[in-house]
Amino acid sequence: MGGESGRKHAVVIGASIAGLCAARVLSDFYDGVTVYERDELPSTPDNRPAVPQGRHVHLLMARGAMEFDGLFPGLLDDMVAAGVPILENRPDCIYFGAAGHVLGTGHTLRDEFTAYVPSRPQLEWQIRQRVLQIANVEIQHRSVAQPRFDADAQRVTGVYLDSDGSEPDFVAADVVVDAAGRGTRLPVWLEQWGYQRPPEKIVDVGIGYASHQLRLPEGALRERVIVAGASRQHPLGLGLLGYEDRTWTLTTFGVGKVEPPHTFPEMLALAEELLPERISTALRRAEPVGEPAFHRYPTSRWRRYHKLERFPAGILPLGDAVASFDPTYGQGMTMTSLQAGHLRRALAGGADDLAHDVNRATAKTTFPVWMMTAIGDFAFHHAAGQAPRWYRPVGSLFDQFLGAAETDPVLAEWFLRRFSLLDSLYMVPSTGLVGRTVRHNMRLWLAGRRAARAERSGALAAS
Ligand SMILES: Cc1cc2nc3c(=O)[nH]c(=O)nc-3n(C[C@H](O)[C@H](O)[C@H](O)COP(=O)(O)OP(=O)(O)OC[C@H]3O[C@@H](n4cnc5c(N)ncnc54)[C@H](O)[C@@H]3O)c2cc1C
Fold first, then answer.
1. Are 347 and 189 a contacting pair, CB within 8 Å?
2. Mean of the pLDDT values across residues 384-399?
3. Ligand 1 centre distance from Cα of residue 55 (Å)
4. Which InterPro entries match (predicted)?
5. Residue nearest (by alpha carbon) to ligand 1 atom 15
6. Rounded percentage of the chain residues whose pLDDT exceeds 90
7. Are 126 and 227 part of one and the same domain?
């Protein structure tokens, strides 16, 4: 793999979450950074065509909030000032159902943590405003046709931009960051330049999203985050988030190619099935705003660039361009924020081979999260395709763990902190926690038997 050249000009393809984070990091190391974005960027926190997922619920994990605030100090305060709900991870703020188990209700967690609930357009807009204020960064409304590859030097030396004229414009760059999202053409370009395509891990999740914006009467719900994930028994789930502009987004989804409800009355019927009566009754008072939005997400995809023996210098992928996770787990933006950290560390360490270092670091953080979501997809989300044999038994053990976590606050807290990617990216309970799970489930089982016996003898005495 080739070494890096100077640090004059960096180009970023795409001004979404990954591109903006990349620009922030690169601005500390390059004289100038130009971000090219094919979408016209709105001047207010609005949805835009190239990020259709913005119309559906976007959970910002607690870890992601911390990482973004590290990249853009003051971001969280500004979001709260803009009305973004801030909430402690307490039962009265969050209703959280995972794989058919409801966690965190009926008891207070010992170690609460803070979550933020910006809408996706709000988060991107807040970050963009900060990037626009960086003196050596420029965001241009142009589409990148493709990078320029110098075969003699075996490196990318800039990008060609789509132009109205016959010849595309060329812009030289010492490094190009591909933050073009999961539709990136980097694998194709690599092949054209004489490299291998990256090997891929794919999970056929077959997810469909259907969302509606809502208005709810003030105080109708005490929670701001309501999640009921799909389960083995039920391939449909939903998320309901209250955002900064006092609107709510209700997203329903189907996994394993099961269609989610398409109309608002059907969405309400699903909410009635999945949520406690108190919440579904409040939802009946909601007023739908605008038209529903739909999105299909057929596969999770991890392009494993770190496995390639040869990779050109002068270019590196970031964000969904590398790994696009099952969105129902709400991890994509947080995983992108971690990759921005890898880029910073590689640049600060003066990496000879930037892509090599960043690709490897990204693989290390992607692996545990990818594995856990894949286990969940095969065990609970009816994913199709070949999975390692041990995925399903591990999924069953997790089912027991989540069952115990419903009534054991220590287990619930462990799960919620890990799910938020706070303590570790690995979702592997210690032997102590496994023992606790077994004892807890055993106690519940014995209590159930005792209650049944008491009921039987009560009935006999009465007859
Ligand atoms: C339905 C759905 C729900 C999701 N929910 C969550 C959630 O709850 N929580 C969470 O953390 N994550 C969620 N995600 C994932 C999250 O949206 C992404 O991880 C996040 O947007 C980071 O993506 P990105 O910046 O890498 O790419 P994208 O957001 O896809 O952006 C790519 C950008 O590159 C631009 N671009 C592409 N090609 C070119 C070109 N040739 N020239 C110029 N510009 C170009 C595009 O216009 C776009 O702006 C969800 C995703 C989906 C699909």
1. no
2. 90
3. 12
4. FAD/NAD-bd_sf
5. 332
6. 86
7. no
| DSSP assignment of 316-380 | EE-GGGTEE--GGG--HHHHHHHHHHHHHHHHHTT-SSHHHHHHHHHHHHHHHHHHHHHHHHHHT
Q: What is the pLDDT of residues 27-38, one digit of tens each?
A: 999 999 999 999
Report yes or no on 347 lying in a domain: yes
> Is position 449 within any domain?
no
Residues 162 and 114 in one domain: no
Å from CA of 355 to ligand 1 middle: 21
H helices of 114-233, where?
A: 120-132, 186-192
Ligand 1 centre distance from Cα of residue 333 (Å): 8
Shared domain check, 94 and 68: no
> Each residue of 263-316: pLDDT tens digit?
999 999 999 999 999 999 999 999 999 999 999 999 999 999 999 999 999 999
CATH number of the domain enclosing 335: 3.50.50.60
Residue type at 106 in one-letter notation:
G
Q: Output DSSP code: residue 168.
A: P
Choose the residue to mutate in 61, 295, 297, 320 for probing ligand 1, maximizing ligand atoms within 8 Å of C-beta. Answer: 320
Domain count, the chain: 3
CB neighbour list of residue 272: distance below 8 Å, 6 or more residues apart:
280
**Whose C-alpha lies nearest to ligand 1, atom 53?**
53
- Do residues 212 and 271 both lie within one domain? yes
Query: Is the residue at 16 inside a domain?
Result: yes
Q: Which residues line ligand 1 (CB under 6 A)?
A: 13-19, 36-39, 50-51, 53, 56-59, 143-144, 179-181, 209, 295, 297, 319-321, 327, 330-334, 336
What range defines the domain where residue 193 resides?
9-52+62-79+120-201+301-374
CA 198 to chain centre: 22
Closest approach atom of ligand 1 to CA 320:
26
Whole-number Å distance, alpha carbon 167 to ligand 1 midpoint, is: 29
Residue 114 sits in a domain whose CATH number is 3.30.70.2450
